[in-house]
Amino acid sequence: MEKQIPNQTAELVIRNLHAKVEGKEILKGVDLIVRQGETHALMGPNGSGKSTLANVIMGHPKYEVTAGEILFKGMNVLELSADKRARLGLFLAFQYPASVPGVSVANFLRRALESVREGYDPTAPAQPTGQMDKRKGVPPAEFRKLLQDKMQILKVDRSFINRYINEGFSGGEKKRAEILQMAVLQPQMAVLDETDSGLDIDALKIVSDGVNALTGPGLGILIITHYPRILSYIKPEQVHVMYQGRIIRDGGPDLALELEQKGYEWLTGTPDQDVEVKV
Amino acid sequence: MTQTLTKGFSRAGVEALSQLKGEPAWMLEKRLAAWEIYEQAPAPLGRRGDLGILQRVARYKYDALTPYVANGAHANGHAAAQVWESGLLVQQNSSVVARELDPALAAKGVILTDMDTAVREQSELVQQYFMTGVTPNANKYAALHAAFWSGGLFLYIPRGVVVDRPVLARYLINQPNVSSFPHTLLIAEQGSQVIYIEETGSTLPEGTTALFDGVAEIFAKDNAHIQFNSVQDFGPGIWNVTTKHGVPEKDGYIHWIVADLGADTTLANLGTTMAGSGSNGDIVGVFFATGSQFIQINTLSDHAALSTSAQTLFKGVVDDRARVDFEGLIKVGHGAQQTNSYLSAHGLLLSDNARAELIPSLEIAANDVRASHGATTGQVDAEQLFYLMCRGIPENEARRLIVQGFFEPILDKIPSDELRARLRRSIVRKLAKEGQRIADETEWHDITDHWDIEGAGAEAVAILGGDE
After folding, report:
1. Across the interface, which of A83, A111, A161 has its CB nearest the CB of B451?
2. Is B393 within the bounds of a domain?
3. Partner B, chain A 126-165, Cβ-Cβ below 8 Å
4. pTM (2 decimals)?
5. How many domains does chain B divide into?
6. Average pLDDT of B255-280?
7. How far is B113 from A234, CA to CA, in rounded Å?
8. CA distance A254 to chain B (A)
9. pLDDT, tens digit, for every residue of B95-153?
10. Which residues on chain B are in Cβ contact (under 8 Å) with A173?
11. Architecture of domain A12-97+169-268 in this structure
């Protein structure tokens, strides 16, 4: 197979993506393009396949892609393991992040930062055994400064980072920890999967402020959400509505407003009892 | 005179050993009585019979072993005492080759000597305690030990004396086909305190084997505290059989910290009999089996008096084709009301061919008792792995983080910083397989050390209610 070489345009291109989990097809032909510097919202009722899409973008082994492609920086990322995707510049803020007992947030993050900074170069020769020590470490002082700055933005208590990853974290703490990781790792394309769920209004504001502080020409964002609420804090340029494994409507910010007023039934044609649209 | 016995174990061998050591008649009698028990006792096969790890211990070629070998002219293979130790004893194969004790402690009446010397110089104490904490009936291998023991450590802490720096013992094997039988007898008198650390290791030519069969008997008198640390880090080729038992009396406390990392085959029996009211016996245990290592661990919390407590916590990892069987028993006697006992064992399997069976059980004959146990065995969690990989961490490294994280909470319960650091190094080394990144010793430090992020505290207090 021809070796792929990433280009510098951090564009996420999803074409005709089909994926199944445990034999059941969830994604039935998704098309979506998110460019660096853009913020997109992906909305839709529960069970429409939004979280599946997030996991497939990142390469969760539980999901099987049956057709279509996902390109990032011009590379077919479906061939890459999750760590390589992350080192290419992709990031997923989890809806339900796993806890990892015994591993502290600070040290995990430092490890992650070192890996991400190393990047992914498919043309580099395979590392000879035992040679990975050459990895450029992140000096502790630099890391502390970086972490400290990001923690202030996200109003994260210092005790937080010495705790084990997500172990015993409240819902709000988990979400802030996800955004803290995003702030430290500085990806070029971030998928935020239901980052607003389980947050009260104060927490939502902190998390949104955190995300807004990171947005800019270098970062593309795909916010996956069930409720339009977060979109009063983070303004997307484009809004997509997903239903039954497909994107059924694309639009501008107005589409979110319309959904807020009319609910998903307006688009899906069936009553969605899970949806409570708040103003 | 020849200082090496002929191959194989026999009654004549027992007599020859005792004669070679110039022992008093009472010790020869104890040896011979133990030999009788050894000959009569069936090898334990456990609940798995022919399939179990005990079978591998039973089938070992005992006849090919030399029961006792003399050491060369000079002792080597041990480092000089470090500053943090208060005493040191080094045994190589069959005999003790080095011994030191802080003179200030000796002046207070602390006795640290090898067991052979103790038989001559502390015969009253030895006669009173020897093979009473672990009787020759405990198991066939304890009986073999009692018949052929040689070397080992005698440590006596007088009433009220606190030994604040650890006493360290090292047991080394460097000759094929030897058997090493060190006997540890530790007596802490009323109100005294001591920390003891035992390390084992070996260097054998490839393809050769040797036997380590050690017994430790620990006596904590009223209100005495003994912390007994043991790091078993034998190289390949060692059949390692140990029987360790502690007896705390009224308000006495015995705290075991044990790690089984090395050896081909291990059978570790470890227990505490809470003999006095208010006494306490805790165990913190760690194991890590790789390659074709077999480890069987049997623990006993034996509550024999009023108001005693015990907590046994084991955690370990099994990789490759290795096997670990753990059987933990909480036993509460008739008179042992107000017992409080807990036992847990958790295993993490890193390969499809690795096996671990962790079985806790209870035997309770009193009615005012709090006793509970739990055991789990599982594989690396796929969601944890995916989560770490999603942050750019390669799979091998992510697995290693998860394994280290698995151990971390139990390592946190180890009182000695030095020992904790030593175990982390050993674990990191065992995790670094061929073809993977060679982990260095500072790595775990990175992963676990608490970080002090200056300046992010006061003004960054969480404002979300109920979060912290």
Report:
1. A161
2. yes
3. 129-130, 132-133, 144, 147-148, 151-152, 155-162, 164-165
4. 0.86
5. 1
6. 97
7. 74
8. 31
9. 999 999 999 999 999 999 999 999 999 999 999 999 999 999 999 999 999 999 999 99
10. 464, 467-468
11. 3-Layer(aba) Sandwich (3.40)
